[in-house]
């Protein structure tokens, strides 16, 4: 913070007016300081030693930029108006800049709230007759040729003429019809008075050429700068001669701020937005229809995640050297899930965010399911859904960025680095809060959501263009609407009842509110990361989040389809599952048959290969017949029974073991057939005995080769027993879900706020408490007090007897120096035991670490 802001002298403002931001903070009560620290949590990271340090930190560029980014549209417009107002400005002057000459009633009504927000966040300080914008905010929002003001206003007459010769200023004054003066300062004041006088200014413009008025109309709403030639046209010369356009550089002129405000009827902004745009319903459905649609999507989401991880059951794609999935593997995953690549990236990232998927960390690193996936499968479907959605709400990883480019023009890959966006959880919460504010069953349009979101957070970097400021947040909002529909949080665009319960919505009939009391303020936040709340409300505790998730699961459970224990077998070697199957049935059927199509009903097809797969897994033909008979509501078709018997009759007739590998069969004619087949040449077979062939290929290659030739061999162990080939479930070591990347420091809870305010006030007492004058030992400029060991001991002992507090300088074991106000209780053994006002507790200090001691003035005890 600059020196001017540290001590801004206000002559004539009364004895009680604060002279600096630190003084303004010093007169605040605890509730006001708590609101400040809650809305700007970076100010207590770490806790300031006193209010002066708090004020200094509140004026740093990084903190001010973060605070400005969290202002809504109207509060930001108010700050922008104050940036171009006189410093200091009065309450009425700032209101006039916002409401204009016609005193817009909507602006007038919303103005106190906006100014109160700026004051609460310590961006504005001072009484109503001397309002000051924090200097850093003024610098960020003030106009310059390189960075025009967001209001479109140029510099004042005094600023634009600061480098102009006194003679030229007198010429402008005379051309404007004013009396010349004896100095440039009074001339500039006279010209400013003319431009701010509505009547005289209107009379001056009445005599302007029509072309000159057209020029002013083009510049009035900004940018205020224009180019002129060395010999400007007559109408431009008319404007330049009278100071309505002032030169700022060779060939460049600017429209003075006072002239622009006259032409704007006193408004700093072309359009003020005092009220948040409402999120209007675009369509309304019966709540039962919304819930049923959302439940169907929730079931599909669970099935998709299961199918994804089942596809990677024995080890998924390899991890790229730079991290993430390759483009080819993402395409394969999309084909397996029968979705587009962006949608496949979303499901992969969701499983990763939920801790169900990770890399195995082995030498040949691959992606696989985690042990948490097996635990997740054992949960009821509704609880599995709440786990996925809770992870989605909290995740900062953004699947929509996959396929894009990073700052170094590298492609962003699924599960790779560079996908974290700290704004994602907040945007998801706000978008769903807008839907929660609509009546039950009501859906809205993306444009309505985006308009409201842009009003709540119009600024992402004070110098960015409007297109750049909301581009990411707009994309996040659109992705949120799409992903919420895919997950079953919404149905037909409307928030479902279980979605409302998960979000902690106030319930049906609640209308969308302003950010000061919006429903999004109570949304669940990441389990390990609490972003700063929008209105300073303390985030929900983990227990409250768990209760909301349990309520959502209770509402969703009756809507999900009950798993079936049967299928319908058909004569064309297919089986139809008319709904979700019980897990044991689905697992066995998934081995015995291939999935042919999915949808409301799943169609399985039986093939020789699928039946052989079941036999390889240890099932016998009789087991398969019994299984189908028990789980089919239709008789087992004869073609299916023949298929099973035919494959089983051939299965295991050939036996393959390790020689490198061998083939043995009791039927030597079958071995002769294999040797005669040209396709077996690559296996390099030779006869060892009438019933045994040896191969130079490994058993796995030999199995695959003979199966490709149409045979059905079975592998055997060294003891001659048939090996049962069951799928090996590959799992990673225990893994934790990825940590969300916080958007700044976490919001403080009530306990931290209370302790921080107590420490700040105690530190401020220590730094500002008046001391008795001691010319020989008084510190200069806030340095630690310096006294000899004998003086320190004597003063401490005297304070014990009198019960008075003293001011000490103290250096801890790490060498950090601080000032403290203590009330000594006991001095013995080289230690002083005292009540420390700074820490608000009794502490013991080594006397050799006390640099000095000073008595407090009588009026500060």
TrEMBL record:
InterPro entries: WYL_dom, XPB/Ssl2_N. GO terms for molecular function: helicase activity. Residues 791-853 form the WYL domain. The keyword Isomerase does not apply. Residues 735-748 have a biased composition (Pro residues). Keywords: ATP-binding, Helicase, Hydrolase, Nucleotide-binding. Residues 498-538, 730-750, 764-787 are annotated as: Disordered. Residues 567-689 form the Helicase XPB/Ssl2 N-terminal domain. This is Helicase-associated domain-containing protein. It comes from Streptomyces sp. R21.
